[in-house]
Amino acid sequence: GAVVSQHPSWVICKSGTSVKIECRSLDFQATTMFWYRQFPKQSLMLMATSNEGSKATYEQGVEKDKFLINHASLTLSTLTVTSAHPEDSSFYICSARDPSGLATGELFFGEGSRLTVL
Amino acid sequence: AQKVTQAQTEISVVEKEDVTLDCVYETRDTTYYLFWYKQPPSGELVFLIRRNSFDEQNEISGRYSWNFQKSTSSFNFTITASQVVDSAVYFCALSEAGWGGSQGNLIFGKGTKLSVKP
Predict the structure, then answer these.
(1) Residue in B45, B104, B110 nearest the CB of A32
(2) pLDDT at residue A102 greater than cutoff 70
């Protein structure tokens, strides 16, 4: 079936550095991807909707200048955490919609990327 | 506003017991989708089921079964003869059927941590 892949699966970085996480749809072209964030023992919260060829739509309370999203192609969206700080440590998960599955609400999730900021 | 409530934060059972995970949702939409995902310690979300709002038939898949009741806005998940490998966090989620903007993303409940002891 359709696969969404994230890279890296885990990353440790120093405070103040920037980290880029990639989300790829492997079997289909995704005009829309979603980025979620999950703190330890918490639920998944939508951060932003990534739209191919246009600006991302951020949820209330999410800093767009800190979490840069680029969806330059139909198979790749990237999330860059700029000037990361320890409070940004979290599990980031992307999901992508298969357009052929529009009528059925089919969404596919990546494996997640665990970010630890020291 | 859309909302998903999983009132059970943690459940602990002994292997071979049956266990039901509750999910109650709120939405003003007449067309929507409900999901259950399993999240093992590795973090990856494992898709279990998707149900659209027009299909109230209960579903059984092996040891898993789901009871969708629109009258009570509930979509409960039952595991029969639980096994240690069922130990995970289970999320119930809701999605609008629309497209564009933030429509189509998932609203997650807070999750229920299931521990199955041998």
Answers:
(1) B104
(2) no
